[in-house]
Amino acid sequence: MKILTAAQMREIDRIAIEEIGIPGPVLMENAGLQVAAVLRNELGVEAGMRVVVVAGKGNNGGDGLVVARHLHNQGVDCPVLLVGRISEVRGDAALNLEIARKIGLQVIEVGDEAAWKKARKILSETPIIVDALFGTGLSSPLQGLYARVVQDINDSGAFVVSIDIPSGLSSDTFELIGPCVRADLTVTLGAPKVAHFFPPAEDYVGDLVVADISLPPFLFERPGLNLELVELESLVPYFQPRKRDTHKGTYGHLLVIAGSRGKTGAAAMAGRAALKMGAGLVTVATAGSCLPVVARSMPELMTEPLAETDSGSISEEALGRVLELIKGKDALLVGPGLSTHPSTSAFVLKLLGRLKNYRNPLVVDADGLNIIAARPEVLSSLPEKTILTPHPGEFSRLSGLDTAEILRRRLEIVPEFARKHKVHLVLKGYRTLIASPEGKVRVNPTGNPGMASGGTGDVLAGLLASEAMQVKDLLQAAVNAVFIHGLSGDLAAEKVGEKSLTATDLIKFLPAAIRFVASGGEDDSEIG
Fold this sequence. Notes:
By secondary structure, the protein is an alpha/beta fold. It is about 40% helix and about 15% strand. The longest helix is centred in the last third of the chain and has 23 residues, at about 475-495.
């Protein structure tokens, strides 16, 4: 599902109206009908109830007038508080205002603060308010009368339904630009917007319903619409039963270079996760003294001892052996639990230097990223099929940007970085972003705060490397792995709670998550 800016949505509306020939009033009618349907079907609005629509002078207000008209026709007491002069309403909204008045719908003109003082009492007398004040075109903070109206809506105690976007939010940013309605439910039109999915703006949206207003689907496939929410349905084809005549070689042999003294768990969890995600074979190459711990973690894992430093991390001397091990492997994972010991760092940098022409997927995680961050010129020579998996702190070191700036501008910075360095980038965290070298960005909807604990990133690294061997499209492989990782966490949280959730719980619930996706969400036997 595409996530759009205001400009992108306006252009789609323009093409629909001017080039395809769908009249603007038809789109407005469709929008109002959809919102009215949500009020009836989701909130149980019926004849004899009261709903108040607070409408602005623009198209969002026009949508609200359509809602009010349909509810009025169905016996709902639905007065409209029009914030602005009736004479100032233009275009399609004016058409619907005229219709509303002709059918006897009560429209109360609120032209100034004195008029609002008289009218606002009605807000405390209704269980439901429809916010149709401002739509997606807002770019500056609400002031004066509009700010007062928003505050009174928020203080009313009513259930608030916003049309398209809560009034006061900008659809182009998830930062708050000023006072805004705090909705309980938002019915967005055509496609969701940026503000709907990222905090702090997301916190004002409430439950989100995406309403189909009969815009042709091909309009959302136009070039340049690169931001997209991952939906379960898009993953289903990749988790179907395997063909009968396959074998372990069909699903790839992954080499994991990971672990050091005190961090053997990182290597073990990455390897275990890779196997559970369907890899045919997994070999974990680790410091010699760490090997017994890793080997005991799962009998199906193969292991390889490497030369080590005095502190128990992989030594620079291991390079030759690792280059031999890479031969015949279908993917490579470097980083979990490695440490940044000088000799280990030299090993990683020399290894990456020898992989310029590597044709198989390479996943670099954790200490692998920290080592690269100390030598950022390495980024320009990474292999073509590289996936980097930083959390915001690691990405700050990689990019040289402040963490706060990364979080504030991540929708711009992440695709820019992926394009510049020709890598696939997975920025971990709430609403993990997955970006391709072509600038496509996918937003992951799964996961929960219980996953903010040690080892969950190691599990994700194993899932990514495993899936990258099995799915040729590297962006899709990354999307699959990130979605399943978060879903496993969600299923685990249902059983053990967020507070007690650990990384190994994610591995435990991987089979249930995979079954759930394979069934298109119908297999919920492990939930609850």
